Amino acid sequence: DQQVKQNSPSLSVQEGRISILNCDYTNSMFDYFLWYKKYPAEGPTFLISISSIKDKNEDGRFTVFLNKSAKHLSLHIVPSQPGDSAVYFCAASGSRGGSNYKLTFGKGTLLTVNP
Amino acid sequence: GAVVSQHPSRVICKSGTSVKIECRSLDFQATTMFWYRQFPKKSLMLMATSNEGSKATYEQGVEKDKFLINHASLTLSTLTVTSAHPEDSSFYICSAVTSGIDEQYFGPGTRLTVT
Q: With 0-12 CB in 10 A as exposed, 13-18 as middle and 19+ as buried, what is A33?
């Protein structure tokens, strides 16, 4: 049973436009959410996170929105750049820090930004 | 950001042999390290949580006698795949956390191929 779902395996957008990556979760105990970017044969790189007490967090071109009632979050990248092309993983946790800080990952969405 | 390294990046071994993978935090002390496994086009699956100086905590379905984890110091954790079989071929990734940092920092991963 997948607790974190990324239903779109791939997404293709034009350079300069907005990329919207979606993620749904089922476990109501999750209260911390993260997005990671991953290139082939490399480890994930942290992008942005959001705590359940917020509904939006912004960092430069990246914004994460959280809708707790719908158990849904999304990552917006604007403007999209070709260098953003990678697999994006959504992850969730029930606690931050320490040995209980376990991340549950979605399957990832391959984003391709076309020049 | 914090740097986590893994060694080796790639390893090919014969069925029945054992392989050790190292995970090091280079510029911080990692109180907890996590080991993940990723199959092609699948999400990262947490295998075990490793705390310095204590026994690792394994996730359900992960054989602790097959995947030996040692967290000997605050900067080093090792994963040994014992009596490897072709089905153990996968991408193994570690991550590390420390007090005061809310994100997990991931290593670049190790590609294991068992022939």
A: buried
Q: Which of B43, B105, B107 sits opposite A46 (nearest CB)?
A: B105
Round to whole Å and give the CA distance between B13 and B82: 11
List, for chain A, all residue ranges whose pLDDT scores fall below the cut of 70.
1, 97-100
Nearest to B43 among A42, A89, A98 (CB): A89
Under DSSP, the state recorded for A19 is E
The residue whose two tokens read 């359900």 is B60
The distance in angstroms from the start CA to the end CA of chain A is 38
Q: Cβ atoms within 10 A of the Cβ of A105, count?
A: 24
| B11-25, B57-71, B87-101: least confidently modelled range | B87-101
What are the chain A neighbours of B92 within 8 Å (beta carbons)?
A: none
